[in-house]
Design brief:
alpha/beta, Rossmann fold, 5-stranded parallel sheet, single chain, about 10% strand
């Protein structure tokens, strides 16, 4: 089990240059969990793609349905106290600290591309590339 932030979810479901890497992460560990926050953030990302004409409504709906199905039953409400502890220990946003707090609470790794999270929480956060490379080295 790994915690993923919204960007990792977006890389998997919205075709782009990091989709293959997100697929490698999924192949290494298919049990993804996240904060319920991911839903609002993902809808906002998709709204941007839709408004810029990058994705049409059908593509947005497919991304939403796929991601929601993937994470169904694997979403957590993160206690504010845990989030605020991470806020106090960093300069990261409360949004980002929610994912870190979840990883810490579940005693697992946050897989993210957020360089600030990777820098400020190196014991809890791992990059997509590093996580995917671990599986390549194990083969």
């Amino acid at each position: 089990m790994i915690v993923v932030d919204v960007n990792t979810v977006a890389y998997l479901w919205i075709p782009g240059e990091l989709t293959a890497l997100a697929e490698q992460v999924l192949a290494r560990d298919p049990h993804w969990v996240s904060s319920v926050l991911w839903r609002s953030e993902f809808r906002n990302i998709l709204a941007g793609y839709f408004r810029r004409g990058v994705l049409d409504r059908d593509a947005v709906d497919r991304c939403l349905h796929g991601a929601e199905s993937q994470l169904a039953g694997s979403e957590y409400l993160v206690p504010s106290e845990l989030v605020m502890r991470k806020v106090a220990a960093s300069t990261c946003s409360a949004y980002d600290c929610e994912y870190v707090a979840l990883a810490d609470d579940l005693k697992t790794t946050l897989v993210t591309s957020d360089t600030q999270l990777l820098r400020e929480f190196p014991m809890l956060a791992t990059s997509l590339r590093a996580f995917a490379d671990l599986s390549a080295g194990a083969s």
